[in-house]
Amino acid sequence: MTSMNKVVIVTGGPRGIGRGCALALTQAGWSIALVGLLAPEMARTEAEIRALEREAMGLEADVSVFARAGRVAKAVIAGFGRIDFLLNNAGKGNPAGLAARMGARRQ
């Protein structure tokens, strides 16, 4: 399955499951916006994605804070022109976070 020119935000993307998902999506042709709090790991994962000749953007943010999640979305749209998918893998379980608020706004 390829998804050329598609953009995904991967929260918790700098390491662990998020990193694995980001790299798999990269290999499927997605451009990746990594979001997390771990700058060194984010830089390393971002470099790996670019080595696979895909676009990557690293954004340091805590998406459990809704205002910060909104800034992430705006930055991704400014950088890539769109958002096609959100893979919400962030380690915090705060219901005021990005995924919970996105559903509430659409109703």
Fold blueprint:
Layout: E1 7-11, H1 16-27, E2 31-36, H2 39-51, E3 56-60, H3 66-80, E4 85-88, H4 98-106
Structural account:
By secondary structure, the chain is α/β, with parallel strands linked by helices. It has a single domain (7-106), classed as Rossmann fold. 46% of the residues lie in helices and 19% in strands. The protein has four helices and four strands, in the order βαβαβαβα. It has a four-stranded parallel sheet with strand order 3-2-1-4, with helices on both faces. It is globular.
Q: Looking at the structure, what is the overall shape?
A: globular
Q: How do the strands line up in the largest sheet?
A: 3-2-1-4
Main pleated-sheet profile: 4 strands, parallel
N-to-C SSE string, H for helix and E for strand: EHEHEHEH
What's the domain count? 1
Continuous helix count = 4
User: What is the class in the CATH system?
Assistant: Alpha Beta
CATH architecture label: 3-Layer(aba) Sandwich
How many β-strand stretches? 4
Span of the ends, CA to CA: 31 Å
CATH homology superfamily name: NAD(P)-binding Rossmann-like Domain
Average of per-residue pLDDT values = 87
- CATH fold naming: Rossmann fold
Structural class: alpha/beta
The helical percent reads 40-55%
